[in-house]
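pasting for ref
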Amino acid sequence: MHNRGERLGPIASQGDLEDSALILVDTNIWAYYFDSTLPEHTQVVKPLEKVLKRNEASINATVAVETLHYLVKRLGPLAGGEKARIFMDYDIPVYALDRPTLMLTITKLCEFVHLGIGGRDASLLATMDKEAIRSIMTHDQSFRHVPNIEVIDPCLT
């Protein structure tokens, strides 16, 4: 087993990439992955590494900033900063929060606020919709009530 935070280089072939579908990986999964003191850590390691090795992982700017914040605040500026740099060095798509995505975030928030979806969650749904991503890896149970998406929760298996 490799050390959490080691860079996983691209392993999938070009043919594999064409057949694979992207999965938006939520902040809580990255926190569990990089922070070995959390009880969920062992549950997410293999599933997330499988997604990374298949080049299926993606994030948006919300997840990027939240993950960087968590790592530095929770693990400290040295260890957290190192893991934050490793995280940002992964070769995964990072989708911007441009004006069209933010406008779609408003739509998603209005549509799903009654399900417990807040602004940050709505930005993930907007990114998924805009980028035609059907799956999210998260431990956030609010997403389970959103129609037409697949929720992958490695903490429940």
